[in-house]
Amino acid sequence: MTQKKAKLLIDQKEIELNVYSGTEGDEAIDISRLYEEHRLTTYDPSLANTAACRSSITYIDGEKGILRYRGIPIEQFNRPRPNFIEVAWMLIFGRLPQQSELLDFRNMLSEHELLHEGLRNQFQVLPAKAPPMAILSAMLSMMACYYEEFLTLTDEKSFMEVAARLISKVRTIAAFTHRRAQGLPFIYPDPNLRYCANFLHMMFSLPYRQFMVEPEVEDALNLVLILHADHEQNCSTSAVRIVGSAKANLFVSCSAGVNALWGPLHGGANVKVMEMLESIHRGGLKPEECIEKAKSKDNPFRLFGFGHRVYKNYDPRAKILKAACDRLFAKMQCNDPLLDIARKLEERALNDPYFVDRKLYPNVDFYSGILLRAIGIPTDMFTVMFAIGRLPGWIAQWKEQHDNPTTRIMRPRQIYEGNDICDYTEIEDR
Ligand code: CMC
User: Fold this and answer.
1) pLDDT bracket for residue 285 (50, 70, 90)
2) What is the average per-residue pLDDT within 79-85?
3) Is 409 in a helix, a strand, or coil?
4) Residue 136 — φ and ψ, nearest 5°?
5) SS3 content of the chain, % helix, strand, coil (to 5)
6) Is pTM, for the whole model, over 0.85?
7) Backbone φ/ψ region at 359: left (φ over 0), alpha (ψ -120 to 50), beta
8) Closest Cα to residue 277, out of 354, 222, 342, 331?
9) For ligand 1, is residue 234 a contact (CB within 6 Å)?
10) Which H helix or E strand runs over 5?
11) Distance 361 CA to ligand 1 centre (A)
């Protein structure tokens, strides 16, 4: 097949550029040699229209509301659903695992579920009420101090060792963070429990009473983690890739992902959604006021859990989570008034020209918090839950970049708009 070309005309000079097509027909103009060959850069603030890599992990069609992991539509991970660990393995290694591969990986997770005592002791020197995302980021970075042998990865086996350590220990770190904030003793992991049940055990068991994990609650958590597992080149994943492109190790690259995820425009939105719904519930804010505030250009407030850089349609993860809330409440024979408020807010927004014109729909964060709340997770841990779910995605993206021999350090350019050349003046002469 002949290579498709694009032509750029600049000051009568014609520049021919290659056009690449992805599997699903998306086309991208290759400008990678534009500076080297023509001293030209491209201006794309927020990288809103830049494909920074070629990737085979996740596919999104934002117009149609499609999300696929390694080609599999996200809806297929909903009932009957695989275990989060199976999805994590598939994202990282590129195909569904065989029984024996999955078993080996699970055994590795069990082997590494404890924290090194040095790492565990770090909790004692941090303020008990420190933000959980700050603790998570610090702990992932600090893993580099305890596993120096894995700072440079040269083979698949050692990569697997690091991936297993990260995926296993992240939930121990998260649970210990919660226990310390509550002034409760740490509950050690139980290797006989599945990934989500083990996490809930560490969160909620007492030394004298094992927490009984309801199957539907375990299932709901498993679903939340699967739905967060990857989302191609989002802000935190791009942070992981940028740090990783400098050949920084996997621990600190993932820690960078945690930092980016914490932001309220990204993963931190799940906390903001809950604060917004609670404020409406307490009567502090009326739903219509909330919508009006979000629309006002004089107010920085946004309707959290709404809008997306890529989705210009209903986020398919939000659709699944909304139905999962209904299912869980029906099984538990209870309700949450916040779910009714969220539904009403959604209805108002979807019938308001402001949101319709801008194609603003509920995103993953709109309903995830209500499900997490039903599971028993406190609001301040919501973004940590997002991070536990997203970790396999970060690891998969880091690996894809690391395994690609053509990878170069990521280093964007700029349009300089500062002073022209000028002189330094001594302080007394200014
Ligand atoms: N409430 C009110 N107005 C909004 C919202 C919102 N939630 N989202 C976008 N807009 C408006 C925005 O003001 C702009 O209006 P105008 O064209 O008049 O200036 C227009 O819609 C386009 O928005 P944008 O900010 O240029 O879009 P973006 O692609 O830069 O930002 C976003 C995407 C997700 C940061 C944004 O939609 C937002 O702030 N949403 C609320 C926070 C949120 O829910 N974040 C979670 C994102 S999904 C999961 C994740 O990535 O973690």
Assistant:
1) confident
2) 87
3) coil
4) -60, -45
5) 55, 5, 40
6) yes
7) left
8) 342
9) yes
10) strand 5-10
11) 10
